Structure formats: structure tokens, C-alpha cells
From TrEMBL:
Source organism: Methylibium petroleiphilum (strain ATCC BAA-1232 / LMG 22953 / PM1)
Keyword Lyase assigned: yes
Keywords of this entry: Fatty acid metabolism, Isomerase, Lipid degradation, Lipid metabolism, Lyase, Multifunctional enzyme, NAD, Oxidoreductase, Peroxisome
EC number assigned by the record: 1.1.1.35, 4.2.1.17
A UniProt-annotated Pfam family: 3HCDH
Catalytic activity field: a (3S)-3-hydroxyacyl-CoA + NAD(+) = a 3-oxoacyl-CoA + NADH + H(+)
Localisation per UniProt entry: Peroxisome
GO MF annotation terms: (3S)-3-hydroxyacyl-CoA dehydrogenase (NAD+) activity; enoyl-CoA hydratase activity; isomerase activity; NAD+ binding
Superkingdom to which the source organism belongs: Bacteria
Name assigned to this protein: 3-hydroxyacyl-CoA dehydrogenase / short chain enoyl-CoA hydratase
Species lineage: Bacteria, Pseudomonadati, Pseudomonadota, Betaproteobacteria, Burkholderiales
3-hydroxyacyl-CoA dehydrogenase NAD binding domain boundaries: 298-473
């Protein structure tokens, strides 16, 4: 049963019962519809109460049904709501905990609504690129007023029932029930059982004194804030329709708009991200009920750029951190940076001074390993040097208590070798934070050959606690994100050799939607970092073709923003990237040395080469088992590298373009004499999926 039916005195009670959040999947809808018929047919029943079992009234449509015929199978949500409206006996929705999306739309179709305080009420469809499709945009303005309804529909954010109940003139709730909700709902049902005519939200009207100007202002704001997404503007159009059109016409317009949005690449991308984010937390061979270790106290080794930011994550979550360094000055510098970060947040009004002090109060420092003995987990963020890491891990092995988790923030070193420095490789794991570690959402959780499943499960849970998007990566040089970005940057540099300018490449990929192009990104991260990596690669991969231009740039000391000059020029204290004549000259000089006649390169080629370089490397990572799912790669790129959200990540984007087309373009790039034909050989997985007419999404 997905909804239960019971009779309590003169009232029938239909209880949605589809864990975890009573999603309105087909079976649930059918059971509610059956319950309505039973209640109509039972002469002893005078009123019907609909409520939800467990932790929600209803979280809305069952997203697992999206894109399947089940979603529209009768009774669909629209026809179920019509059946509720048509009931000859009053139907009362009894709302608690969570009432969102389709759940709220169903409640709005009921004759009355009673709610417990603290119920989170929302129409969150805009977050997956949609509008509410079962009357939400037509009914909510009629009960809340246009402005409050539009705010909820456009933001998708939940509002607590008691706040909504306090809005003047609201008709959303007929009663707020303190105490037992069911007792209150049944008492209310008894009061209204004989009342006729039955009230319907569709009979109310929505007004705005200044409708045209108000909606135009809203459209301008939405366009400026989310230019890539059509759904916010459609939300506004629909609320405008609730004012301008008769109810049934508004409902029809809402439905046709909803179905059109379902097919947009933007909504498909957002739905993919919604699912991928949840799926990233699931690891095939680590069951959800794997026991986790208790992590209440942390230690961080190294108080540099990363160590400080990493520590802040845990302080923010209320967990005490002890930070260890080799010298007092380094500790003092690290603590001063953390303090400055908190002070900046206080200045911006993001944090109270009292809270900032509380968090700082959880931080202690030491030069002595003995002080780490009671930490449940330690994260090492010392210099990227295997010898230094060896010293640290051997020491940690001596002092840490049994069962403590030993994590390394290494970005390139072999975690299995680091684990082998200890006698407890099962307790060793990689936690690859991104800079600035207190801000960036992404955390690559690196699973060593011997990392214990409970250690993995613990770190994934802890990552969630500090609000990171955690993605598991196997051990390889660069893990998922940096291994892919290396190929992306390689293409960017080759494009410049062939005829583009850094600003042309940056502009093209920024128009595609990236937050920042590869040259601005390199200047921000420091060009010397890539230089060091390339030097290693020249030795490891002597056959691969690399552009020498970035090395020439580094030889002139142009390391990026930190030296005031990189691919661009920078004015002191500013971050604006100014095209540099010196760099252009350097590029042109190098082309002459190589005998390259520059050609005009279109934006399409720039975008395809940069993005498909990511896709092909991503396919290799999947094939090698470094990444478990295409969605994991997408989450890495969306949360760590500024990949445009409306495209859903590189692998999702490739699916949207069609893998057949991706492979065709790669075959074209193989003919470029200045690039590597072998690199553009489609990864076997990509070639297979393309040949079978499949996608990364359903290929895995
Ligand atoms: P950093 O140079 O800013 O900080 C390293 C700190 O470790 C210094 O304060 C140093 O005094 C301390 N240290 C060195 N040897 C030590 C020892 N034996 N015991 C205790 N402390 C010691 O370096 P950063 O950038 O913070 O990098 C740290 C680690 O994080 C490296 O493994 C790096 O590859 C990794 N990483 C760096 C990222 C970045 O963007 N900077 C991003 C992701 C990972």
C-alpha cells in the first residue's frame, strides 16, 4: 500500500505512505483516488482528511518517475486534484514537516488545509528548471497574494507554516494546529463537515494593483540573475496568468509550459545534477548501513594555504581542531589568516562576532605530536613532497590512537605509497580539498587500495556534515578533476599556438558558460604549478605533443596574479585581466620559431576542443574505474571547476550533444598536425557507447 485508508468516527483518513517523503508516484496517487471513492461511497463518512505518514506530508512528485510514462499514468496529479475538488464531501489536508511541490499542489486542491507549525512549505520546481505543473502557479497566488506567491515560486525555498499563517489575508491555511495534528484535523473536519458550499481555491481571484509594472520588473530581475535558465521567467509569466486569465485557461497554459520546460536541455541538466549529487554519496560496494567511526575531534598538520582553510570547515561545524606545524611562526601565521577570514565574514554581516569567537575558540595549536593523541581523525596538508609526507605519516602512525583516520590532502602523490608508510593502511584515505578550502564545495575522497569501507563511509558522512559535495576517486595522478583539467589546459595552449589569443579562448568558453576561461584560471592558480607538472610529463610522456608557450611565459617570471603578470597584466590590488602586448609578442615570436602560420579559429572549435578533451579523459577515468559514474565526474566539474550548471557537467553535455557527434568531432581533430592524433582517439568506452547509440547516463 502506498496510501492507507481508515475511518475515524465520521471522517475517513487517507494517509500517504510512500517512504522516505511520500512522493506522489503512481501507486500513491491510485491509492488516494481509491480512498476518495471509498469515502464517497460510505454513507457514514462525512469528511475526508488527507495526511502523510512518517517524516513528511509529501515531498512532491516522485522524481524517479520523471521521464517515464508512469509520471502521466492515470490518475496523474492533475486528474487526482480534479477528483479531490469534485468530492461531494469536504476534503481537508493535514500538513506537517514537509509539504513541497506536488504535495503542496495536492493540498491546494483540497477544500481546507490545516497545518502543524514548523511545516516546511515550498514549490521548489524552479530548482530543477521547471515550473509547478499541477496548478501551483495558479492556486498559490489566489491564497497568498501575488507577491508572496511569486517569491516562493521563484526562489523555490521553503517557508515555515507559521510564517505563512501570519501573512495578512492569507487563505492557505484554515488553521494552525498546536499539539497533535490528527486530533486537530479531525476536530476541524467535524466542524466543517456539514458546511456548504464547499470552498475551492480556483474560485478565488488573484490581484495586483500594479500588475504590468510589477511583472516586468520581476522579469528583468530574473533575466539578470539567471540568464541561462528559462524557468524563472516562465514562473513569472504563470503568476501573471493567474491574475490575467480565467482559472482553467491559466491551468492549461501552466501545463503546456511545464511540459515544454521538461524537454529543455537546461531542465534535463538540472534534473541530472539533482540525481547525480545524491548518487555521488552512494558507493556500490559500501552499503548505506556500513558502520561509521565517531569523529569528534580533528587534527590538521600544516597551517599553510590549505591547512587553515581545511581547519575552518570543521570549526564551522562545531568540531574542535588542533593544528600542528614545525615552527611557532608558521602556526601564528596560519591562525592569523583564519582570524582574518572570520573577521571578513563578520564585516560582511555573514557571521556574528560572537559566533566567530566561538569558532576560533575551538582551535588550538601545537608543535608537539603528543597533542594529537586524542584526535579521531588527522588531515595532513604539508608540502607536496613524498619525503616530507613520509616523515609525517610515520610519526602519525606512532602517536595516533588505534582506529583514528589518517587523511592526506595530497593533490598528485600516490596515496597507496603514503598508506604504506604506516602499519595501518586501512585507516589511510585521501581528502582532496580545493582552494580556498573553506569556500569550495568539492571534496574528492580518494580511496586507496586498502582504505577500509568504514573509513570511506565515515569520511563521506563527515564531508556531508561540513557541507561538501563528496565524490569518490581512485588513486591516480591528479585524481578526477586535475587529471582532466590537464588535458583541457593542454588544448588551450595549443589553440594559442595555432592562432587564437588567450582572451579569445577565455571569451569563447566563458560564453559557453564557464565561470572563468583557462588563461584567467591559470593566472589565478599560479602558472608555476602547471609548469612543474609539465616538466614531469615531458619525462613521463615523451611522445605527447605539448605547447612550449606556457613554459616560455613562466621563464619570464609571469606566474599570474601573484606576480602581477601572467597571461594577462594586472594592476596592483586588482583582479581585472588586461590583455598583454608582451604576451602577444611572446606568442607570435614562438609561432615564428615553429614556422606556424596562424589561422583564424572559430569559437565553436575552441569550445569543442576544450570540452571534448575533458570528456575523453573522463571516459578513460570511467574505464579505469578511477571514477565510478559519469555523474560523479559531472559533480567534480560543476563544484570544483566552474563548469556551467545549465549544461549539467561535461559528461552530461556530451550526452546532450550526442556521443556520435562528439566522436565525429574528435576524429576531425585527429587530423590537426599540431596536435596529438593519439590523444583524440576516442576512449574505448566512448567509442562503444557512441557506436551503440547510448549515452554516459544510461551506459553506466
Ligand atoms: P603551503 O606551502 O601553503 O603549506 C604547507 C604548510 O605545511 C606550511 O605552512 C609548512 O610550514 C607546513 N609543513 C611543512 N612540512 C611540515 C611538517 N613536516 N610538519 C608540519 N608542517 C609542515 O602548501 P598548501 O598549498 O597548503 O598545500 C598543502 C598540501 O595540499 C599539498 O599536499 C598540496 O599538494 C595540497 N593541495 C594544495 C592545493 C592548493 O591549491 N594550494 C589544492 C589541493 C591540494
Amino acid at each position: 500500500m502506498s496510501a492507507r485508508y481508515a475511518v475515524h468516527g465520521p471522517a475517513a483518513v487517507i494517509t500517504l505512505d510512500n517512504p522516505p517523503v511520500n512522493g506522489l508516484g503512481h501507486a500513491t496517487r491510485r491509492d488516494v483516488a481509491d480512498g476518495l471513492v471509498r469515502a464517497q461511497d460510505d454513507p457514514a463518512v462525512q469528511a475526508i482528511v488527507i495526511t502523510g505518514a512518517g517524516r513528511a506530508f509529501s515531498g512532491g512528485a516522485d522524481i524517479r518517475e520523471f521521464d517515464t510514462p508512469q509520471a502521466m499514468r492515470e490518475p496523474n496529479l492533475l486528474s487526482l486534484i480534479l477528483a479531490i475538488e469534485a468530492s461531494g464531501k469536504p476534503v481537508i489536508a493535514a500538513l506537517h514537516t514537509v509539504c513541497m511541490g506536488g504535495g503542496l499542489e495536492l493540498a491546494l486542491g483540497c477544500h481546507y488545509r490545516v497545518a502543524a507549525p514548523g511545516c516546511q512549505v515550498a514549490l521548489p520546481e524552479v530548482k530543477i528548471g521547471l515550473i509547478p505543473g499541477a496548478g501551483g502557479t495558479q492556486r498559490l497566488p489566489r491564497v497568498l497574494g501575488v507577491e508572496d506567491a511569486l517569491n516562493m515560486i521563484l526562489s523555490g525555498e521553503p517557508v515555515a507554516s507559521e510564517r505563512l499563517a501570519a501573512l495578512p489575508g492569507q487563505r492557505l491555511f484554515d488553521r494552525l494546529v498546536e499539539g497533535d495534528l490528527m486530533t486537530g484535523a479531525l476536530a476541524f473536519a467535524a466542524e466543517v463537515a456539514a458546511r456548504r458550499p464547499l470552498p475551492l481555491v480556483r474560485r478565488l481571484t488573484a490581484h495586483h494593483p500594479n500588475a504590468d509594472a510589477y511583472f516586468q520588473f520581476a522579469r528583468n530581475t530574473a533575466t539578470a540573475m539567471a540568464p541561462q535558465f528559462p524557468a524563472p521567467r516562465k514562473c513569472i509569466d504563470m503568476v501573471a496568468a493567474s491574475v490575467a486569465l480565467p482559472f482553467d485557461e491559466g491551468l492549461r497554459l501552466e501545463w503546456s509550459t511545464f511540459t515544454a520546460l521538461m524537454l529543455t536541455p537546461e531542465s534535463r541538466a538540472l534534473r541530472h545534477v539533482f540525481m547525480a549529487e545524491r548518487a555521488a554519496g552512494k558507493i556500490a560496494d559500501v552499503p548505506a548501513d556500513t558502520p561509521v567511526r565517531s569523529v569528534k575531534r580533528l587534527a590538521v598538520i600544516g597551517a599553510g594555504t590549505m591547512g587553515g582553510g581545511i581547519a575552518m570547515n570543521f570549526l564551522n561545524a562545531g568540531l574542535p581542531v588542533v593544528m600542528l606545524e614545525t615552527k611557532q611562526e608558521a602556526l601564528d601565521r596560519g591562525v592569523a589568516t583564519i582570524r582574518r577570514n572570520y573577521e571578513a565574514q563578520v564585516k560582511k554581516g555573514k557571521l556574528t562576532a560572537e559566533r566567530a569567537e566561538q569558532r576560533l575558540g575551538l582551535l588550538s595549536t601545537t608543535l608537539d605530536y603528543a597533542d594529537l593523541a586524542d584526535a579521531d581523525m588527522v588531515i595532513e596538508a604539508v608540502f607536496e613532497d613524498l619525503g616530507v609526507k613520509e616523515q609525517v605519516f610515520r610519526r602519525l602512525d606512532e602517536v595516533m590512537k588505534p582506529g583514528a583516520i589518517l587523511a592526506s590532502n595530497t593533490s598528485t602523490l600516490d596515496l597507496n605509497r603514503i598508506a604504506a608508510f604506516t602499519r595501518r593502511p586501512q585507516d589511510v584515505i585521501g581528502t582532496h580539498f580545493f582552494s580556498p578550502a573553506n569556500v569550495m564545495k568539492l571534496l574528492e575522497v580518494v580511496r586507496g587500495e586498502q582504505t577500509g569501507k568504514d573509513v570511506l563511509a565515515t569520511v563521506m558522512q563527515l564531508g556531508k556534515k561540513i557541507r561538501k559535495t563528496c565524490v569518490v576517486s581512485g588513486v591516480c595522478d591528479g585524481f578526477i578533476g586535475n587529471r582532466m583539467v590537464e588535458q583541457y589546459l593542454r588544448q588551450a595552449f595549443l589553440l594559442v599556438d595555432e592562432g587564437s589569443t588567450p582572451q579569445q579562448v577565455d571569451k569563447a568558453i566563458e560564453r559557453f558558460g564557464f565561470a572563468m576561461g583557462p588563461f584567467r584560471m591559470s593566472d589565478l592558480a599560479g602558472n608555476d604549478i602547471g609548469w612543474a607538472i609539465r616538466k614531469r610529463r615531458y619525462a613521463e610522456r615523451p611522445h605527447m605533443q605539448y605547447s612550449k608557450t606556457p613554459d616560455l611565459l613562466c621563464e619570464t617570471g609571469r606566474f599570474g596574479q601573484k606576480t602581477g603578470a601572467g597571461w594577462y597584466d594586472y594592476q596592483a590590488g586588482k583582479r581585472d585581466a588586461i590583455p598583454s602586448p608582451v604576451v602577444l609578442e611572446l606568442i607570435e615570436g614562438h609561432r615564428r620559431t615553429l614556422g606556424i602560420t596562424p589561422r583564424k579559429i572559430g569559437d565553436d572549435e575552441i569550445v569543442e576542443r576544450l570540452v571534448y578533451a575533458l570528456v575523453n579523459e573522463g571516459a578513460h577515468l570511467l574505464e579505469e574505474g578511477i571514477a565510478a559514474k559519469a555523474g560523479d565526474i559531472d559533480m567534480v566539474y560543476l563544484t570544483g571547476y566552474g563548469f556551467p550548471l545549465h549544461r549539467g557537467g561535461p559528461m552530461r553535455h556530451a550526452d546532450e550533444v550526442g556521443l556520435f557527434n562528439v566522436v565525429r568531432a574528435m576524429r576531425r581533430f585527429q587530423h590537426n598536425p599540431l596536435d596529438d592524433a593519439a590523444f583524440w582517439e576516442p576512449a574505448p568506452l566512448l567509442a562503444r557507447l557512441a557506436a551503440d547509440g547510448k549515452t554516459f547516463g544510461h551506459g553506466l
